[in-house]
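Hey, resending since the last one bounced:
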Amino acid sequence: MLQVIKPNYLFAKLKPNNSIRNQNTHLIAKTISNMHSSIFQSVKTTQHKHFKLFNKEFSIPFSFRYSPIGKISFFVYLEKERIEFYFIFPENVKKIFEEKLSGVWNQVTIEYIEEKDLPKFSQSALKYQMEYVKEDGLSTHTNRTNNDLLSASLNVVDILESGDKAGVIYNFVPTSQKSFRHSYSRTIDKVKKGVPVDRNKTGLAYLFKMAVSIIDSLIKDLTELLPGNNEKKNEDNVLDALLDRLNGGKRISESTERKGRGHIIDSQVLVISESKNKVRASSYATSIADAYEVIAADNKFVKKVYKRDFDITNTRFPSASINKICDEEAQNFIALPGRELIEKYAFMDKVETQETQIPKDLQQGSMSIGEVTYRGHTQPAYLSDDEQFKKLMLLLIGPTRAGKSTLIANLSADAIRNSECVIIFDFIKKCELSNEVAACFSKDKILEISCSDFDALQGIGYNEVGVSDDPFKQYENAKRQTSNTLTLINSVNDNSESSRLTPKMERYLESACLVVYISNGSLKDVFAVLLNHEIRHSFISNVPEKQTEFLSEYMDSLLELDEKSRDGMQIIGTKVQAGIIDRLNALKRNTYMELMLKKNANNNINLVEEMQKNQLIFIKMPQAMFTTDAEKDIFTTYWMTKIWLALQVRADQYEEKDLVKVNLVIDEIYQVAHTEQFLKSKLSQIAKFGMKPIVSCHYINQLKYMRDELRSANASYMLIAGCDKKNFEELKEELYPYTAEDLKNLKRYHSLNYIKTKDGYAQFITRLPKPL
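The structure tokens again:
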């Protein structure tokens, strides 16, 4: 019994991009050629086959299974504003064929479709078959550096009317190489002898050429028998010249020479066009058929009407001419458009940007940054979960309404699912970012610190340090609070050196902070100590005896502020410290800050405790709280110093393995210069304390202070669709092989990424996560 196993065909749609090159498509043809197997190789035997015949069961010891070779087709489909490319090939060669396609066209995207979704032509469509003019041994022009045939064929798109369509189907069937070698040798011998090698051996043209060839041969024979007859030699020369004109000469081109050593495939070429107007249909088909003149050489293709019906999965199209082409000739047929044609036909179904495989390190993780499409396949992409890199900074760059808020919401959700903490530092407009993210979570996962709520205002202070019975620990706590207070006070004025406190004033401020904080006082008390001699002496006298060793120098500095009577016996006031008073007045200009200065920090939220919880912390500072940008900057700098101090204290209280990862989200940090400056100064350290900054901006160069620090801090970047090409210029070398054109062509809600991995950096494009 013989069982025929028909090939199961796959239908692959190919999407080119700007980086496509066709120099090596002959390798695809070689792969097709190598698929050939003899009939004996295609037949396999199976044992103990049972079957029924006339209601009786029969059994034979073995049966035959015949698996035909199958074929591979390349299909170019054209409409007025539609250009598509397809490969049809057997399922059993999928893996090897995909590898070859990807190797030849490095950036091609392969998308599999159902046969029903393949473009179709009706039975009334006009069809031409393209066939060699001469015998198969002669080659058309081959040149790996050009794309002339495809370019010429696509010209028909310019004349296609709406609703009309055209296409070319190249059918490739593997064949035996041995039989061709003999026919090739015979053809070359004919050419050298001046014998016509026309494919059509019944036409008048062929018969005339053959007659001239025979006469020429007879004359040459006579000439050899009658030497010295110059007249006959002249006649011979005339006939040779005539034969050369009729047959194309006795020399063969390099393309034909290489064909004798090349890989041969049986090919059928059908040109199809369809229109309600038969004249237009004929015009389209003729235009495509005439395009084959660009590859004419020793051989060329001419059109011939094809009237049979066929199925795209037929191994051979019924009665269609078979041309034995070599792999280099097939390169003319198997071609995708590169940059020039893609730009000319902008509507073409293509991949807008380059596609890159992401490293394994980013194929799994806890914080998703979207999906990567690579050669038609999608896979999730994540930030690195490597212990050394997962807390490094992430910079989001994109214009308004580009999708940054949605991305932040998704990153926050991923962090919460991973038992982490998220702090969203929101000072933009009405805190829409916080509200948008908060809407995605239940209330039990949210801690809201509303800085505009008068009833819930907290005192300005660094309560996270707590109080310690250990004198040295308490002194260290006071020093930490002092350092952050100095940062806050220096942020009150602009950042110029002339506006900073003088060294002398900084010394007085530092001394006041230490004396106050050692006794668990607040910032309000610090100013009181600097401005009121009675309060100053009260705090100095309250310094614990165990701390006098640490603070004696600072207490002496504060005593310098005393203004005494003329006899020096009485303290009558305080020497004016204009810089300190100016800063206090600046703080008090903001209503919220003034009220916070009047409160102590005893009832403040303890950020150390809250950071250890799996929750979202919103620090909301609406724009309406501030009359100037400077006020906003002071306020945000205070909260940033408070967060930093809480991280330090937390690191002292917990083992590193027990620290909950904290993700700090800051939108448009460039609006608050001192806050940016402070974060920049801590950027290289902050990951060690368990915090990952996630910062967003419109332009990288908006980050006046952090910009240069980002690289040394191993930051990752996400350039979201719509952002200016100046952002690309900032990272041009790092983003190679991507170009500014790739950034320009990004689809909405896509991102060009430069992400830190355990093996360096990866460059790739993702579609951002969808809204929660």
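The two ends are 60 Å apart (CA to CA).

Sorry for the duplicate.
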